[in-house]
Design goal:
Number of helices: 23
Largest sheet: 7 strands, mixed
Distance between the termini: 130 Å
Radius of gyration: 38 Å
Number of strands: 35
């Protein structure tokens, strides 16, 4: 009995000890939870029920000067998963399964993402309707942030100027980058209490802090002018297969950029896509790093970041400096022998017309005819220090201050004593120094602005979502470079370049234009010399020349077939000037009516004719002609004409012809139609070409193979088909002319002309063999 009682007592004692031990453990645990870990546990509990979601601020729009939206936002959502919440692995697996169905993402990859203990981004730029469907599923830990996706409605239009945003909405390149802080605004927040399934608690509270939307930038760009400039760029690319084309249109009085175009351009909606099929093909064999380097090159804005030798367009700067320093005058006489030979240990420098030197020539004529030796003499009289002083004063060698990122300085001598005798000579016509396109057009714009240099701008003002102007960009004057008197002299001389010089293709029936052309050898990539067969053709102009409103610069990099600035760049420059001025509401030149059509003649097709034949044809029609470029020899062939074949002109209008000397190893086959055997034999023997006759003995050429304009080598045979001679009728007066109305149809268009413009100021209309294009080869 005693033994059993003792056993029972031991059990009771054991149970009491166990009870007290368990009680102690519970108490200890309560102490830990309620006292020691109280703050941490409270914080975790609050974090689980109280959540914060970001309200993305709307990025400001980018608008053109007239309010057209060039960069906008479309609603989209970003989906996150908050892995810091207490969600077990099984639940995460179910969430991954649900999201995989909705988002079409691999379930396993999604589960790996959801396994993180941090807040992670699942997917960006989800359609808002899809985001709403996912939100309604109330998946634990899944957060949906409504925001925007940047969209560029005009795609490649002004892409280098506008730039783009990255996946996080941060501006990259262009205005998107330089005004990123203004465009971005500041995000807001939503604070709310919710359960693990993201449902708001009945007793919970929510608090919203609204986002502050970004400001919109109103550009100085005119979308209409920008698009027209880019259309002209595409025309140049199609016609001359150039590597690159750049166009800038600047308002001279304000420095506002009205258009800024570069080809090839990228689409900011997909900036990592190739800009051409050729580039896309090259990426198949390139490394990731090489492709990334191509991206950077695609996004780089060439008109502010790239430098080049401007060639003869820089003669404007040389002339303006010399006029301001009074070391020359528009009518000062120089003498061109065709060469500069007196620089020791230096190559001979040639004039573009070295085969037919200009002889006595004034500064005005030297600018119009682009005479290199004359400008060498001008710069020698000006001197090294004065020349460099004005180069710097016009803004070369420094940033213009344009409100875009990545502007280059250019390359100019550090001081006057660093300019050699050869350098002083070649810099006078734009070789041996390098500038950015924005520097050049801004300098020329200063001449159109009475000598006052402005700071160029692409943003006009910042406005809020209501359109209220928050900040207007001030028009900034940099300095007075030359006097108004000098500027007026330069405008007069630039007008002569268009009227009587190398830029006659810029003549307009609507506006008076002044300008300068340039054709410079392209510098090698390593900067050690020049390509022999690659050129940079350019045209810079001001209009209306009597009171300039705009400056236009067209640069064509490595055009094919033709490379002269007067042919490749000038027509586009004229077209852009005309469109821009009309778009800006600038009145056109008064057109005079004429009811006398009796002197109209229809232009014949002179292409590929020998200059002698072309001259005889024009003379028989009572027309005069001038030579735009090329030297006259018996073998010279007409390669282009203005007006074009089929157009009607007045008898006293000058026909402009451009020639090819046909002195290469391969000969251009001339148009031999209408010539008899004797005439053909004498001509082709001079060329050293093999030929055979077929057809009617004693007849004239009615067909030929190869055709006129094709090139053949001396070992190729030219076959000439002879037939009966057909008398051509002279087309002086067209019978369709009735009551002042003429229906004209040619290869280009069909249009009705109700009036004929009477050309004014027709002095200097005699044959001008000296009007050749500048910088045929201007290697220093």
């Amino acid at each position: 009995m005693k033994k059993n009682s003792k056993i029972n007592n031991n059990r009771i004692i054991f149970l009491l000890i166990l009870f007290f031990a368990l009680t102690l453990i519970v108490v200890a645990r309560l102490v830990i939870l309620q006292i020691i870990d109280r703050k941490d546990l409270t914080k975790r509990a609050i974090e689980q029920i109280n959540r914060s979601e970001e309200i993305v601020s709307d990025r400001g729009f980018i608008l053109d000067k007239n309010g057209k939206r060039l960069a906008i936002n479309t609603a989209s959502s970003t989906i996150y998963f908050n892995g810091s919440q207490d969600i077990d692995s099984e639940s995460r697996s179910l969430i991954a399964k649900e999201l995989s169905k909705s988002l079409n993402i691999d379930e396993l990859e999604l589960f790996k993402t959801l396994s993180s203990k941090k807040r992670v981004k699942i997917i960006q730029w989800v359609d808002t309707n899809l985001a709403m469907e996912i939100r309604e599923k109330n998946l634990a830990g899944v957060e949906i942030v409504d925001g925007f996706r940047r969209v560029y409605p005009y795609e490649t239009l002004a892409s280098h100027l506008i730039g783009f945003t990255n996946i996080d909405g941060v501006g990259q390149y262009g205005v998107e980058a330089s005004y990123n802080s203004k465009l971005t605004g500041s995000p807001g927040r939503i604070f709310k209490s919710s359960d693990r399934n993201n449902r708001q608690l009945p007793t919970g509270k929510s608090q919203v802090f609204d986002a502050n939307d970004g400001l919109s930038t109103v550009l100085t760009i005119d979308q209409g002018i920008q698009k027209y400039a880019e259309d002209q760029t595409k025309n140049i690319i199609n016609e001359f297969q150039a590597d690159r084309v750049h166009v800038i249109v600047e308002e001279v009085e304000t420095g506002h950029i009205l258009a800024m175009s570069s080809y090839p351009s990228f689409d900011p909606n997909g900036p990592t896509k190739a800009v051409s099929d050729l580039q896309a093909a090259s990426w198949l064999t390139k490394s990731d790093q090489e492709i990334q380097n191509d991206w950077y090159a695609n996004w780089r804005n060439p008109v502010i970041s790239n430098i080049y030798e401007p060639g003869s367009t820089f003669k404007i700067i040389t002339a303006a400096a010399a006029l301001e320093e009074n070391t020359t005058s528009p009518e000062k006489q120089y003498y061109c022998t065709g060469y500069i030979r007196d620089i020791k240990n230096a190559p001979v420098l040639k004039c573009v017309s070295y085969k037919d030197p200009h002889g006595n020539i004034t500064l005005r004529e030297a600018l119009a005819k682009s005479c290199n030796p004359s400008f060498v003499y001008v710069n020698r009289d000006l001197g090294r220090d004065n020349f460099l002083k004005y180069v710097k004063a016009f803004g070369f060698g420094e940033k213009t201050g344009i409100d875009l990122p990545g502007e280059a300085l250019g390359l100019i001598p550090a001081s006057g004593d660093k300019i050699s005798e050869l350098g002083l000579a070649t810099m006078s016509y734009g070789h041996g120094l390098a500038v950015t396109p924005i520097q050049l057009i801004n300098a020329v714009a200063a001449i159109g602005n009475d000598g006052l240099l402005m700071e160029p701008r692409v943003v006009k003002e910042l406005v809020n979502s209501s359109g209220q102007v928050i900040k207007a960009t001030e028009i900034s004057e940099k300095r007075q470079v030359i006097s108004k008197e000098t500027a007026d002299k330069m405008l007069s001389m630039m007008a002569d370049v268009v009227e009587n010089g190398t830029a006659t293709r810029a003549k307009s029936s609507s506006y008076s234009i002044g300008g300068k052309t340039g054709t410079a050898n392209k510098v090698l990539e390593d900067g050690t010399g020049y390509y022999e067969d690659q050129y940079v053709a350019s045209f810079v102009g001001l209009a209306p020349i009597e009171d300039p409103k705009i400056a236009v610069l067209v640069i064509v990099d490595n055009p094919k077939n033709e490379y002269y600035g007067s042919i490749v760049a000038t027509p586009a420059g004229k077209n852009i000037i005309e469109y821009s001025l009309e778009n800006l509401g600038i009145g056109k030149t008064i057109r005079k009516e004429s009811s006398d059509f009796s002197d109209l003649v229809k232009m014949p097709d002179l292409s590929n004719k020998l200059i002698g034949d072309a001259g005889s044809t024009l003379s028989s029609m009572g027309l005069k002609y001038s030579i735009g470029y090329g030297n006259i020899t018996d073998e010279s062939i007409v390669v282009s004409q203005k007006p074009k074949a089929g157009e009607f002109i007045e008898k006293d209008e000058i026909v402009e012809l451009d020639l090819d000397e046909n002195s290469g190893s391969k000969k251009i086959v001339p148009n031999l139609y209408g010539k008899d055997e004797k005439q053909v034999s004498e001509l082709l023997e001079k060329y050293g070409l093999e030929f055979t006759f077929e057809g009617l003995e004693g007849g004239v050429v009615v067909d030929q193979e190869p055709k006129a304009g094709e090139k053949i080598s001396q070992d190729q045979n030219l076959t000439l088909i002879l037939g009966e001679k057909i008398e051509e009728t002279e087309n002086v007066f067209d019978k369709r002319l009735k009551d002042g109305l003429l229906e004209i149809e040619n290869d280009e268009n069909k249009k009705t002309i109700k009036s004929v413009e009477i050309k004014e100021n027709k002095e200097n209309t005699e044959n001008n063999d000296d009007q050749t294009e500048e910088n045929q080869v201007e290697n220093p």
